Amino acid sequence: MKYEELVVEYEKLFHSKNVRVFFAPGRINLIGEHTDYNGGNVFPCAITYGTYALANKRSDRKVRLYSTNFPAEGVIEFDLDSLDYDERHDWANYPKGMLKYMKENHEIGSGMDVLFYGNIPNGAGLSSSASIELVTGAMLESLFDLELDRLDLVKIGMRVENEFIGVNSGIMDQFAIGMGKKEHGILLDCQTLQFKYAKLNLENRKILIINTNKRRELAESKYNERRSECMQALADIQNVLNIDSLGQLTEQQFEEVSSVIEDETIKKRAKHAVYENQRTIKALEALKHQDLKKFGELMNDSHRSLQFDYEVTGIELDTLVSAAWEQVGVLGARMTGAGFGGCAIAIVEEEHIEAFIENVSKIYEEKIGYEATFYIASIGDGAREVKEGVHI
């Protein structure tokens, strides 16, 4: 939808003008998958697809929320003094959770009317839930002149995911969306929350996001299963080594102690967590030295590890990535996100993008039976108010 159309929709729904506009991006993770909850490093970046919120304060304590992405749900209403999770409120529980937790330490003195619009494909693994959390946070921060450190806002977003929604995820999604910087990736140590920005100088290449168009039905249950398996591996290793997370181990250290993990499946899960963390650190070094070939190789190795050791890819993602590897002008390709559907990413030379899309699309449709969707990603800034030149 165009900005003008959203404003018209807002005025029609809420009979109010002079709205303020806020935006929070989605995110992709260039490398470092399933390392965040293992105390390791991740390397995400914010993208220019995301969630918009058009908002005005009210004079009473009523909160009215509407999403153009879920029009059948209509306007969802609740009171500012009644912010418990409500299954009937569906997607609106994400902004509701932000309201609940921000209200604990900050004065939110009135209700509001908010229209949400997202151009992140639902269920694609690009973090639409964290995007709506952080756009709500940025909106409340500005509407009510709150003084929040951005990291505190990020942590509130993760708390909503963990405690209010009940998904046992790490902090990467909210961090990338809250702290994103145009044309930069973020190397984030998920144990210490120390981070570095890294300029993404891809020369004549673009990042392509490729949506399998398979909804990630298994992602949540398998995510919790993998997390549990890694905790078991950590507990086994802690019998012989004083560590707090798998992310503290080098590859050599892991190989020296891995024999204490008797279950071979659990050992494979731990191996991925350790080796993927080290790949992520090496990826930053490769970028520092403008060694894009090495960066691409690390992306490819990441996918193989996710396929064979962590086993979270599936036929759709494997088909996309293997097809991508065969194409001319491809630096690297891998799945991104939790897995079991969702998206892959590829870094492709601009002159070969058209042929890449045509060839990969054909291979995927022939093998899977339906189409993939391709997006050219730009790396953008984090959650913020949009004051001028709104282009949606």
UniProtKB/TrEMBL annotation:
Site residues (Transition state stabilizer), renumbered to this chain: R27
GO biological process: galactose metabolic process
Catalytic activity: alpha-D-galactose + ATP = alpha-D-galactose 1-phosphate + ADP + H(+)
Residues annotated to bind substrate: E33, H34, T35, D36, Y223
Binding site for ATP: S67, G123, A124, G125, L126, S127, S128, S129
GO terms of molecular function: ATP binding; galactokinase activity; magnesium ion binding
The protein's name in its UniProt record: Galactokinase
Organism this protein belongs to: Alkalihalophilus sp. As8PL
Gene name of the encoded protein: galK
